[in-house]
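Data card: per-record layout.
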Amino acid sequence: MPIQAKICGLKDPESVRAAIDGGAAYLGFNFVEKSPRYLTVDAAGELSKHVPQSTGIVALTVDADDDQLARIVDAVSPSMLQLHGSESQARIIQVKRKFGLPVMKAVPVGGPEDVEIARKIEQSVDWLLFDTKPITSSSADLPGGTGIAFDWQLLHGTSWSRPWMLAGGLTAETVCDAARLTGAQFVDVSSGVESARGQKDPGLIKEFLRRVAQCDGARET
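The structure for this 221-residue chain is written out next.
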């Protein structure tokens, strides 16, 4: 199976078009106000009009309430909700039932104990996303995009009953090695395709996707 990519934190038509033309499987819209990649619901609704049905839209939120999620779902019609905060298993199940959409839960990884947390919630989610655990208090409430990779060896040799994405400091230069070591079939990039913090670069997006298309996806043994 070819590796598929999600380009997250898109904010402008040029970057959206670059991701679509480059073959991204998913586009990520960030609805967290503290993030440099924040997108208003209205702006995301406009961008979503130009996304073909063959490309998935993922709505990234942090501890969002039902009202915020309802506004996003109504305006954007996402194909998946990404919960990137401290949402409990009960909240994950509640969101799935209320909105009838697949839910991907982000798991911040800093050590083996964090991988075990993913095991505990695995059956409650539709997707898992492994991202780098914040190392400073100032970034603890931001949804990824740190540009820092975690130790990929922590996922080496693991298997999961749910599909999952690998995130955290990926770039065009590192994505194939990361996928090969972890066995990831889906990768997620944000800061790795930016020319400045929060500013996507269409050229970097296309280069990242070109490299992903060249990855063989074989798991190391």
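Known properties of this structure: The first helix runs from residue 13 to 22. Residues 4-214 form a domain with the TIM Barrel fold (CATH 3.20.20.70).

See the next section for split statistics.
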